[in-house]
Write a structure and sequence with these properties.
With 210 residues, the chain is of the alpha/beta class. It is built from eleven helices and six strands.
Length: 210
């Protein structure tokens, strides 16, 4: 009856959202941007529903990469969320970002962002080397080609990172549909951003009324 320590729970990890900005998205080609935006909304919504310790970081926001996705700002408004802007491609090498992440005092770190081969590989390998357990939400990461994304994911797995998906992340936090305090927010989030799965939830809820 005891769940695995390898499972994510709302209080055992920090989520780091990295460089979900327009300029980075324009060159992303391994995943459709509409799908990527939905996946980002799912993990952003999940982190708010379950009060996950979250850090949002950008790179050269005002001079090159532009503002964050609306799906990030929806859950983490720029006025109140304290985005950390960097010049370094590796978040782990930025002093302010590093301090913000490590100050969460979580053994597990979950990463998502653009691009997989640069801005995710850097902190993933660096955090693993410092003894953290690193999870990468691979369908909420993007790169300039399928090859670039897949080789980056492969490289991180070989170093010890654990790949997961956006819906897997959300449902692993929910874990039990008997948790009524989060049931409605989770299913509402999926109805809006969960594609065919969300449509299935919408269908089932409406058919139950009959």
């Amino acid at each position: 009856m005891k769940p695995s320590v390898n499972l994510l729970s709302p209080d055992n990890h920090a989520l780091v959202l990295i460089d979900f900005e327009g300029q980075m998205a324009f060159a992303t080609s391994n995943i459709a941007l509409s799908e990527l935006r939905n996946n980002v909304a799912i993990i952003g919504g999940a982190s708010k529903i379950f009060n996950v310790a979250t850090v949002v970081t950008t790179v050269a926001e005002e001079s090159f990469s532009g503002p964050v996705f609306p799906e990030v700002e929806e859950f983490f408004p720029i006025a109140t969320s304290g985005y950390i802007d960097r010049t370094s491609m590796n978040t782990w090498e930025d002093e302010n970002a590093y301090k913000a992440i490590t100050a969460k005092n979580k053994k597990k770190i979950v990463l998502a962002g653009l691009w997989t081969s640069v801005c995710i590989v850097g902190p993933a390998l660096s955090a693993i080397e410092e003894g953290y357990e690193v999870y990468v939400i691979t369908d909420a990461c993007g790169d300039v080609s399928v090859e670039a994304h897949e080789r980056a994911v492969q490289r991180m797995i070989q170093a010890g990172a654990i790949p997961i998906t956006s819906i897997q992340y959300l449902l692993e936090l929910q874990r039990d549909w008997g948790r009524q305090e989060t049931y409605v927010p989770v299913t509402d989030l999926m109805k809006k951003h969960g594609g065919s799965y969300g449509l299935g939830i919408h269908y089932a809820h409406n058919m139950l009324k009959h």
